[in-house]
Write a structure and sequence with these properties.
Radius of gyration: 21 Å
Number of strands: 14
Shape: globular
Strand content: 15-25%
Structural class: alpha+beta
Largest sheet: 6 strands, antiparallel
Distance between the termini: 50 Å
Helix content: 25-40%
């Protein structure tokens, strides 16, 4: 497939056609399904890791810790399991609807302890609704799934987990390696009543399992401008997670509407442009009119017209990962947040007076201090 041509068409104003059948909600894995057993002390708890990242929480399969355009969830996961896990070493296909695994064979030679999640996609699921606009969304969804695994590893105090989202391969699109749990440091030396090894100390910014299971995209509209401090932290998270693949900024509403970005020192915001940009974003984002009233919209931009396939994959995978982690930061600040992935004619660089075709909006995160469901109950 010509990914450059597919992206150009997705960015065009051409509307998608009528919906088509989405096919199976989950990839059909061969062989019998197997439960994920409880982890022994000191082993990586794959049951908890997957429940906190990829598993569906309801029978429809829509509610999951990882965001997905249209709640279509096209990302498929193969697990390469090494030593010190709650499953025997081997390769498994994961069914997120039933929370089961299907054994696919032994692990490759040299598989390290822990688990490597290999992420691929079933394009038909997303194309069934978004048509020719599907491919950017498939890549963004994969980045969100990778970030969900990272956050689950942090919540379980396992790490550091490592992602591969460099865009060099189409299969898998991304991988996440979660190591086996490390024991707590033993500064006093061995003792006769030493307890079994446990998970490493919890990082200060690690989410709790309850936070991850409660994370949902807020329903629009999202009203109320975030504080400068909250917006700064959300932008800083996106920039750190984005790996330099994109540049990040945000449109803000009253009292001083405009476009802002992190200052070079990373501690303050600087204004890139003055004026109201949110109505234009609403047109660019597949006509989602509610964006014109959002409190702020964080934007990842770049990926020029002449980007090759690895560049396109890298930019979109990093964008999905960064927006997912920024969503978590927004939640920590008590903000309502909703990812926005479909953009047409969204040449932000040209709108700001730069050369056309160089600085496209790739992904967004709408923010507000409250959302529609809260307004309906007050």
């Amino acid at each position: 497939m010509d990914l450059t041509a597919a992206l150009a068409r997705a960015r065009s104003p051409q509307p998608p056609g009528p919906d088509t059948p989405a096919g199976p909600a989950v990839r059909t894995w061969p062989g019998p399904a197997r439960r994920i057993p409880r982890a022994d002390p000191g082993a990586l708890d794959l049951d908890a890791l997957l429940r906190l990242s990829l598993a569906a929480a309801d029978g429809t399969g829509r509610l999951r810790p990882a965001s997905s355009a249209g709640a279509l969830h096209p990302v498929d996961t193969e697990l390469v399991v090494g030593a010190d896990c709650s499953l025997p070493p081997g390769r498994y296909g994961y069914d997120p609807l039933r929370h089961r695994v299907h054994p696919l064979g032994g692990p490759p030679t040299g598989t390290p302890p822990g688990v490597r999640a290999e992420l691929t996609v079933s394009p038909r699921r997303t194309a069934s609704h978004y048509g020719h606009r599907a491919w950017p969304l498939l890549l963004l969804d994969t980045g969100h799934a990778a970030a969900a695994l990272l956050l689950a590893a942090r919540a379980l105090r396992v790490g550091p987990a490592r992602t591969e989202v460099d865009g060099h391969t189409a299969t898998p699109l991304a991988t996440v390696h979660v190591p086996d749990p490390g024991p707590l440091p033993d500064t006093a030396g061995p003792t006769p009543d030493r307890t079994p090894p446990t998970y490493a100390p919890k990082p200060a910014d690690a989410p709790t399992p309850a936070e991850l299971l409660a994370r949902r995209s807020a329903p629009p509209p999202l009203h109320g401008t975030p504080t400068p401090e909250a917006l700064r932290d959300v932008l800083r998270t996106a920039e750190r997670a984005g790996g330099g693949a994109l540049r990040w900024c945000a449109t803000v509403g009253p009292p001083r509407p405009g476009l802002v970005a992190l200052a070079p020192d990373g501690t303050t915001l600087r204004r890139l442009a003055a004026g109201e940009a949110r109505p234009t974003l609403a047109v660019w984002a597949a006509g989602q009119a509610w964006l014109a009233q959002a409190g702020a919209v964080v934007l990842g931009r770049g990926c020029p017209d002449d980007a090759d396939a690895p560049h396109i994959r890298r930019a979109h995978l990093h964008a999905g990962l960064a927006v997912h982690l920024a969503h978590h930061t927004a939640h920590r600040h008590g903000l309502a947040a909703r990812p926005v992935g479909s953009w047409q004619r969204a040449d932000l660089g040209a709108a700001l007076g730069g050369p056309p075709g160089r600085d496209w909006i790739v992904h967004g995160l709408a923010l507000g201090t409250h959302h529609a469901d809260e307004e309906n109950t007050t």
